[in-house]
Amino acid sequence: MSSQILLSGGNKWYSYSGEIFGDVTAPATIQMIFIPNTGLKDSVIEIQPYFGKLVSGNNGQALGISVKLDDVTVINSQSYYIQSTNYGTTDNAYRLFVPRQSKLEILRLNATDNNTQISGVNVIGYYI
User: Fold this and answer.
1) Quick check: 9 pLDDT over 60?
2) What is the 3-state secondary structure of the chain?
3) What whole-number distance in Å separates Cα of residue 71 and Cα of residue 76?
4) Are 51 and 117 in contact (CB under 8 A)?
5) Which has more pLDDT, 52 or 101?
6) 122, 106 in Cβ contact below 8 A?
7) Contact between 114 and 61 (Cβ < 8 Å)
8) Highest mean pLDDT: which of 1-5, 49-53, 59-63?
9) Distances from the Cα of 44 to the Cαs of 37, 61, 104, 124, in angstroms?
10) Which of 20, 70, 77, 118 is an S-S bond match for 52, by CB 3.0 to 4.6 Å?
11) pTM higher than the cut 0.70
12) What domains lie within the chain, and their CATH numbers?
């Protein structure tokens, strides 16, 4: 899990989760990114989830992400799985406005029959 990292110019920041995966005991949600305070300026952020090959389970058991701002869910999507042998990004990148000093949390949503698939998320923020 990553926190917020400020880029050298001071007008952008990023965060990344690295590869996240569970096992049969994994909970329904796994925290991938947690930033308790996004800073003194408003931001526009882009969230880029990525997913690996389905290890076990079936195609009907897709992974997903949930994005919360100050404990309010603003994105909730559970429709990701990639069947190829390569890692891949989804076609879905999410852009949203984040008010200054917000708490940002991105969760991985597991499915009953699919919690071993690798996934992750990258975030880049632009102060406005």
Assistant:
1) yes
2) CECCEECCCCCEEEEECCCECCCCCCCCEEEEEEECCCCCCCEEEEEEEEECECCCCCCCCCEEEEEEECCEEEEEEEEECECCCCCEECCCCEEEEECCCCCEEEEEECECCECCCCEEEEEEEEEC
3) 13
4) yes
5) 101
6) no
7) yes
8) 49-53
9) 14, 31, 12, 8
10) 118
11) yes
12) 5-127 (2.60.120.20)
| Both structure tokens of 113 | 């029959």
CB 89 within 8 A of CB 48: yes
The 3-class secondary structure across 8-38, one letter per residue, is CCCCEEEEECCCECCCCCCCCEEEEEEECCC
Could you tell me which residue, 41 or 56, shows the higher pLDDT?
41
Q: Which two tokens stand for residue 32?
A: 């991938």
User: Which residue type, as a one-letter code, is found at position 56?
Assistant: S
How is residue 81 written in tokens? 């799985």
Q: How far is CA 5 from CA 2, 63, 73, 120, 122, in A?
A: 9, 26, 23, 17, 12
